[in-house]
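Form 7-S
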Amino acid sequence: MRNRAIASLAATASAAATVVAMTATPANAYSDPPVVGDEYVPTDYCPCRFNDNIDGTYWHKDVGGAGIKIIHGNASRHEVAKVEFHPLDEILYVYDVKNDGDTLYYKVSYEGDGGRWGLYVAPSTSNVIDIRKVNLDIPEGRLVTVTVYDDKAMKKQVGKMTGRA
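Output:
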């Protein structure tokens, strides 16, 4: 009986130590996330739909425009983040699809006007999919570059793609 009690106590202590170790370590969900999908879509003849495992993408017709989509994954190539640029109304959608304590940062720049740019990130909530929609208000015909970083300081670039407003 005494041996069972000691074994039970040891198992409980081991389980508690594992839980503490799991919750005490910082989230390092992914490092150098691979691009697992991307699209470059001239929107002259849209509407166009391109499926993905997150929610799909639908581009409206915008003559002279080109939409872009980049999907990043973790080491197992499961989707963790997505960004889309839609030329009609110059809308940016930023997604975080994994509640893992990590996120990607998206620098959006466009030619002209002195190289204007902004840095965007998905909201951090407990939702399964976090989405931020941004109206960029970029003049028609301008090249738009989305550069993806794994850090807020923009030192670790993990993706880049160019479309047209």
